[in-house]
Amino acid sequence: MLIYLNEIPQQIESGRQLYSLRDQHKPEADILIVNGHPASSDMELNAGDHIVMISRGVQPSATELEGLMMARHTPGVHQKVKGGHIGIAGVGGLGSLVALALARTGIGQLTIADFDIVEPSNLNRQQYFIDQIGQPKVSALGDSLKRINPAIKINCFEQKVTPENIAEIFATVDILVEAFDGADQKAMLSNQFLCLFPDKILVAASGIAGYGASNSIRTTKISDHFYLCGDGITAAEPGCGLMAPRVGIAANHQANAVLRLLLNKEPE
Amino acid sequence: MDLSINGQIKQYQDKITVEQLLRLSGISPGQVVIELNASILSPDLHNKTVLKHGDTIELIQFVGGG
């Protein structure tokens, strides 16, 4: 029967046990993942099983990492996610976290745009580190993304996104994540993108400040091409700042909306 | 005339433009995305688009924070 060992097709005899396969191919492996789940005991293998063998604490090769990703995300899902090209306009609190979530999910290509540099005041919610202060956000984020997923293709635009350059920067993305800070900028990007690319999809955010109820953050379908994450009301203003938990909830709403769209599911 | 605004039917005087509707609703034109009858309306058409009885309008107002 045919199985997939580290995503390479292999013929094995039917009735073969997992541990005996490990002893033959990678006796030092201490983590065995069968069809996306870590196996806690020996088991009989079935035709079509996907098996990944990992040695704890050992750096995997690029091929092994790819196989591991594929195994973790269940067969079929990984290929669709890897084929995705997502744009992120603004990599502050929302955008930096959306990028990390998508990188961990195995996205194939990201186009990130932001003119800003990392500042100490960003560290309360944005996915940067003390030693990155002063660096352009797109390159600091690019470094972190590569540390998580070296296979990802990243296109960095260290420039302000304007009505004039949206078409050029985001021409080849499948889905755009709006992750700006200012209401004017959010509306400008949304209007321009939706008018320029009526067949692409926009996942925007609005109403994410403060420490109000987690469950008031929602993903709302405005149209087939426009989704909005947030409570829609709570603006960042004096007395109601942006804080990591709620910004993170909204960013992960956006990332999950992107993931569901790539997998042909309705974001909700 | 009746307009459907974010799912609610409201009455307005005839022949108002989208720009006038925003002003009447107290909405900042630079912070909104408008869908008119399920199509995105480009901001440069706000002052040229005259609304008709029965139009369906979605006003998506952004607030700051990201």
Automatic annotation (TrEMBL), chain A:
InterPro entries (alphabetical): ThiF/MoeB/HesA, ThiF_fam2, ThiF_NAD_FAD-bd, ThiS-like_dom, Ubiquitin-activating_enz
Keyword list, A-Z: Nucleotidyltransferase, Transferase
GO molecular function terms attached to this record: nucleotidyltransferase activity; tRNA threonylcarbamoyladenosine dehydratase; ubiquitin-like modifier activating enzyme activity
One Pfam family in the UniProt entry: ThiS-like
Source species, domain of life: Bacteria
GO biological process: cyclic threonylcarbamoyladenosine biosynthetic process
Residues in ThiS-like ubiquitin domain copies: 1-57
Domain THIF-type NAD/FAD binding fold per the UniProt entry, residue ranges: 78-266
PANTHER family: THIF PROTEIN (PTHR43267:SF3), TRNA THREONYLCARBAMOYLADENOSINE DEHYDRATASE (PTHR43267)
Name of this chain's protein: Sulfur carrier protein ThiS adenylyltransferase
Organism the protein comes from: Desulfuromusa kysingii
Lineage summary: Bacteria, Pseudomonadati, Thermodesulfobacteriota, Desulfuromonadia, Desulfuromonadales
Automatic annotation (TrEMBL), chain B:
Superkingdom as given in the UniProt entry: Bacteria
UniProt-listed InterPro entries: Beta-grasp_dom_sf, Mopterin_synth/thiamin_S_b, Thi_S, ThiS/MoaD-like
Any Pfam family: ThiS
CDD domains: Ubl_ThiS (cd00565)
Protein name: Sulfur carrier protein
PANTHER family: SULFUR CARRIER PROTEIN THIS (PTHR34472)
SUPFAM superfamilies associated with the record: MoaD/ThiS
Source organism (scientific name): Desulfuromusa kysingii
